[in-house]
Amino acid sequence: MKSYVEATFGPWDDESQRQYFDQAFASVPHEIVGASGVDVGFWSVVREPERLVLRKIYLLPEFQRRGIGSALLRRLIEDSEVSHLPIELRYLIVNPVASLYERFGFRKAKVEPPHVYVRRAL
Which residue range is the domain that position 29 belongs to? Predict the structure, then answer.
């Protein structure tokens, strides 16, 4: 995410990023993502009464574009269908992830720079 953060907010600052992540980790549950017995990243999903919110999917660069993120999205979509809750998320405008979410049925709800908000209805 470093390149996207820098493109959006300017030069990387380790201390401010550490503070941001400390707060983000404390506020919602996170789950370590593993593949073949190796920790490859983490993700966070929050279940609210009227929706599921995908807060984060972060995979180490060497494990990106291997289908892991797609597998996580399929798991979340199954949960959405069973629980009858739509899924919502946001991502930075500069992040090229839009096509992935579109393939999984997410549609743009709004753009509020620096974020794009998308939703997958039932």
Answer: 2-120
Sheet harboring 51-59: ordered strands across?
31-35, 38-48, 51-59, 87-92, 115-120, 107-112
Q: What is the pTM of this model?
A: 0.89
pLDDT in tens, the chain (122 residues): 788 889 998 999 999 988 988 887 788 889 999 999 999 999 999 999 999 999 999 999 999 999 999 999 999 999 999 999 999 999 999 999 999 999 999 999 999 999 999 999 98
Q: For residue 91, give the nearest of 78, 73, 79 by alpha carbon.
A: 73
C-alpha radius of gyration, the chain, whole number: 15
With beta carbons less than 8 A apart as the criterion, state whether 14 and 49 touch. no
CATH at residue 109: 3.40.630.30
Query: Are the C-beta atoms of residues 100 and 65 closer than 8 Å to each other?
Result: no
